[in-house]
Amino acid sequence: MRRKRFGISAALAAGAVAVSGLAFAPTAAAVTPQSATITANCGIYGGGAATLKATQSGTTATITVTSAITAPLALAEDSIQSTLTMVKPDGSTVAFTGTENPAMAAGAPVEVGPLTGTVASGDILEANRGSLRMVIFGITVTCTPGGPQSPGPFVFE
């Protein structure tokens, strides 16, 4: 009887260790690449290189954009309303929206996000032919990419 109890206890302990190991295992990157750059034109507000960083959790994806334009004045945290429109190969679009941004000093690069959107497994999204629309102090700034993102489009799992 003792052998059975020990065997059952050992099996339960091994199972618990295996399950806890899965809980603490690192998660795989669900989107590749995780970072891309574009050259954006923001009209009279400037332009230049911008970095897009993407993450994914299931069907929810987020993208943070650090733009080439600089803040004309100090900007408070979560004060920019933003919409990033990404384009699929078939021409349809996915919008990433949000009002999150860090506080920024005058002259600092404008950063928005994470902006949240919904993706499906296998979605391929490119900034080219899309846009980033930001409302800052009631003024709408629209930035458009001048070409494809590098190293390539985001591919979601």
Question: How would you sum up this structure, described in words?
Answer:
- The protein has 157 residues and is mainly β.
- It has one domain.
- It has one helix at residues 2-23; strands at 31-32, 35-41, 47-57, 60-70, 81-87, 93-98, 109-118, 124-136, 139-145, 154-156.
- Strands 1, 2, 3, 4, 5, 6, 7, 8, 9 and 10 form a ten-stranded antiparallel beta sheet that branches.
- Strand 3 (47-57) and strand 4 form a beta hairpin.
- Keywords: Signal.
- Residues 1-25 form the signal peptide.
Unreliable stretches: 1-28
Order of helices and strands: HEEEEEEEEEE
Structural class: mainly beta
Q: Report the mean per-residue pLDDT as an integer.
A: 85
Descriptive keywords:
mainly beta; signal; disordered N terminus; 10 strands; 10-stranded antiparallel beta sheet; 157 residues; single chain
Please write out the topology:
Layout: H1 2-23, E1 31-32, E2 35-41, E3 47-57, E4 60-70, E5 81-87, E6 93-98, E7 109-118, E8 124-136, E9 139-145, E10 154-156
Antiparallel strand pairs: 1-10, 2-3, 2-9, 3-4, 4-7, 5-6, 5-8, 8-9, 8-10
Signal peptide: 1-25
Keywords: Signal
